[in-house]
Amino acid sequence: MSYTTNTCPPITFIAFNKPTEAHISLQFLARNRDIQGTPLYAYIDGSRGTQDDSLVHNTVSVIQAFDWPGPKTIIRSPHNQGCRNAVINAISHTLHTHEHTVIVEEDVVTNPYFYRFMCWGLDGMNIHDTISAVCANPQINHAIYSPSIPYYTRFFACWGWATTRRIWQTVDWDTARMAKKLNTYAKKLHFNYGASPPQRGILRAQLHGTIDTWDITFGLWSYLQDAYCLVSPHNMIQNTGWSPQSKGTHMNGYKNINTVFSFEAPPMPPHFFSVTSGNSGSIPVRESLSIRRARIRHYRENIVIQRIKWVYQKLYTLYYHTLRRLIRQDYTPSKKNATHHRTQ
Length: 344
Known about the structure:
Layout: E1 11-15, H1 19-30, E2 40-44, H2 50-65, E3 72-76, H3 82-97, E4 100-105, E5 108-110, H4 114-127, E6 131-135, E7 151-153, E8 161-164, H5 165-168, H6 175-180, H7 185-193, H8 199-208, H9 215-224, E9 228-231, E10 237-239, H10 289-331, H11 335-343
């Protein structure tokens, strides 16, 4: 199946309280190749309170005023759903009436070939049922490894991606139940070891209620299904949303999450998904050894950085409290000296 302007998959645009970022994201999306006539479904979550009212209102106004090159539907939630439920409900709503969708959040900037690559990848999902998502962000430092063609990986990246109704309707959203299926040390290590940032830490935070996110559950479900994500060799997105207003997963401490943003068109080989036997252009749906090694090295670098930061923080805290104790001892008279002064 090849997409045309009459059958192009819609954009699911998820927004909340970042009007400036939302406007920039829509501007870059509207400049994408083959985007003309594409339906846009914009979902805006409700305010968390008075601190968000004006920002949410401005975000709605920005989306309403934007001149989108196709049909535009705006769905505003009457109450705050939180990051996890807002994303799940938005994608479910779009896929209720469409077979496929491309998902972009308000703080994600896309390159001009992002939508074309998503459509190309969705064609592949129609051929191979072991592909669970098409992802635009490789999350691999290109200084470690720079793939020349799209590749498959077991690990999901949620910044600019696409999926199908067939996949979405089968996802188990019970995070605790899914986590119990990581019932061997080998599974836990493999799930954690190839991803950046380390997935078990995010999973633990989600289970404890520290964060409110959806992507760790989708990624875990995909992993346990032995499904693969098709990833662009070029980083086709840039996340501009590092701010205190973010309500989902915060990963500021991890290196190379935002790999170098590329304006180039990623290669989309015509026979990449071919199932014809003997076709030299067809790539089997599995993770290559070179990609696996690159992800492991990337993971190790991040772990080393985090451990160095942890040791530095502990040493700084120890030094700070020790210094305060010494200052107190120098300037606070002891009980014995205080009694001596009173008797004189």
